[in-house]
Specification:
single chain; mainly alpha; 19 helices
Length: about 525
């Protein structure tokens, strides 16, 4: 029975796991190529590390400086993102096979067989651990194949895997606490973001070395699984014991989730659901109002993230000029990513690219909700009313577009507020406006593409849509940094949006993006007219 459950999970997840693992390995391999190409000399790497330590904001979103060798600098550049991808893969896997199966009714069916209630969760634990082990081994082989030291390569793979296992345990616990998979996923994402920031603050509060190439972190980092991974210091001291913290933490939580499951009824959670109103408000009388009601909490969360990005964009741009005068290497880094004019314009461009990614994620999450409603059978109830399939999908497209507009507006308003007291406020305000609207248009491309995938390949909607965003992020934001050919960045909508270069507006691929959004959205609505509902298998 256990082997049958494990095979079922492998058959169900093979495509999603393949995409997550390949993306992580690609980041590791291309990261080394980028370091070797962009920071070929020891002097270049020292200058960048010194610049980062001079700016706490940048420091929070980078790894732990442990030296200026190629391996040490690579770990500083990409280790937080390798562990982040492993963590996201693991939390989604944990929730999908526990709370997600309960919502779909599969857990109750399995509980009536000799498998009982505990064995499916045990199979999920083994499945998640195995996926992380494969990820860690392939990351290690990619780095070792790049002729980096074997010890550091294998330790990098190990901490990526153990961080994933730690968040596998967090996802399993969240699935026991919350009554819905959406609530469990939201809780795990907030924990992930919170612990990532705690680790960043712990590094910022640390003590730099005299040569500004290494930091001794504060004790705060030990409260974060990301901190445990970084304290292993691959390619430096190569301490394996911090990686064991992530492994032990994840396995303890996994065992705890099995114990908690035995204390509750199927379909219930330890955090009670918030009681709803007896009668709906008049504003909830239309299909698009229902879509808004189902997704507004997530939209608010993405908008808050956008506002923080906007403040950082303009506040950091004011400090960038001071850094660039002493460290020309910083200018080269940002020029590769932003391709704007002066350094302040480039910094704003880079941060607004991150805003575009946030907006695209919000849009994909909303369109994925349509697939969830269809899979759970609740869409059928709505479509039994005088609501056609096209109108139903159009409502999700409209709400996703409104969500993008809200996120862009929140980011731009926060950026304008951050310009207070800046001598170049008027020039940067123009950059904020043009780049912000352009990145909003790029996010709309993913709205249309997700709708088309939903119509043509409904069961692959979630995996394919998130994979498209992930690939566009790798090519558009990290591609130039990792030394990928310039033509590859054109596959990313985030990299072809309008920019301001020395006061001149460069529209670049704006019209192509408009055409893609119009054609793909129209095609998805037209095809939806003839498509039957596809419930969960």
């Amino acid at each position: 029975m256990f082997r049958s459950l494990l095979r079922q999970r492998l058959r169900r997840d093979w495509l999603q796991l393949l995409l997550w693992i390949l993306a992580t390995v690609l980041m590791a391999y291309s990261g080394f190529a980028g370091v070797a190409q962009s920071y070929a000399t020891h002097k270049d790497r020292v200058e960048v590390l010194a610049a980062v330590m001079a700016n706490p904001v940048i420091m929070m979103f980078r790894g732990l400086p442990s030296g200026a060798s190629e391996g040490q600098f690579l770990s500083f550049e990409i280790l937080p993102w390798l562990t982040m991808l492993a963590a996201l893969m693991s939390t989604f896997l944990a929730v999908r096979h526990t709370r997600g199966d309960e919502e779909a009714g599969r857990t109750e069916l399995l509980a009536a067989t000799p498998a009982g209630r505990a064995l499916p969760t045990v199979a999920t634990i083994v499945h998640g651990v195995a996926a992380n082990v494969v990820l860690g081994v392939l990351v290690a082989l990619a780095l070792a194949g790049s002729k980096l030291p074997a010890a550091g390569s294998w330790l990098t793979g190990a901490v990526s895997a153990t961080t994933g296992i730690a968040f596998l345990g967090i996802g399993l616990i969240a699935a026991q606490l919350m009554r819905t998979s959406r609530g469990a996923n939201s809780l795990t994402v907030w924990i992930l973001v919170g612990t990532f920031l705690i680790n960043g603050i712990g590094n910022v509060a640390g003590t730099p070395s005299d040569d500004l190439t290494r930091i001794s972190s504060s004790g705060l980092v030990w409260l974060s699984p990301f901190g445990w991974a970084e304290q292993a210091r691959p390619f430096d001291t190569d301490d394996a014991w911090p990686a064991l913290l992530g492994l032990g933490f994840g396995l303890v939580l996994a065992v705890g989730s099995v114990a908690l499951q035995s204390l509750r009824d199927i379909g219930e959670g330890f955090i009670p659901a918030r009681p709803g109103r007896v009668f709906a408000r008049p504003a909830l009388s239309s299909p698009h109002a229902l879509v808004w009601r189902l997704t507004n909490g997530a939209i608010i969360g993405w908008a808050v993230g956008g506002a923080l990005t906007g403040v950082l964009a303009t506040k950091l741009s004011g400090l960038a000029g001071q850094i660039s005068g002493q460290n020309p290497a910083v200018q080269q880094i940002l020029d590769k990513i932003g391709k704007a004019g002066n350094l302040e314009e480039t910094v704003v461009s880079v941060f607004f690219t991150m805003m575009g990614i946030l907006a695209a994620c919000a849009a994909v999450q909303i369109l994925a909700r349509a697939r969830q409603e269809e899979a759970h059978g609740t869409a059928e109830i709505v479509l039994a009313q005088p609501v056609g399939r096209v109108r139903w999908l159009l409502d999700y497209l409209l709400v996703a577009t409104i969500a993008i507009a809200i996120i862009v507006a929140a980011t731009m308003l926060a950026a304008f507020a951050g310009l207070a007291g800046n001598e170049d406020a008027s020039a940067l305000a123009k950059v904020v406006t043009v780049v912000g609207l352009g990145q909003g248009l790029a996010a709309c491309v993913f709205t249309a593409l997700t709708a088309l995938v939903f119509v043509l390949l409904p069961r692959g909607t979630i995996a394919i849509a998130w994979a498209l965003v992930m690939l566009a992020t790798v090519f558009g934001l990290f591609g130039p940094l990792f030394g990928l050919p310039e033509w590859t960045t054109r596959f990313s909508p985030f990299a072809v949006t309008p920019i301001i270069s020395d006061g001149t507006t460069d529209l670049r691929g704006m019209w192509w993006l408009v055409i893609i959004v119009a054609v793909v959205a129209t095609a998805s609505l037209s095809l939806m007219r003839r498509r039957e509902l596809r419930p969960a298998a």
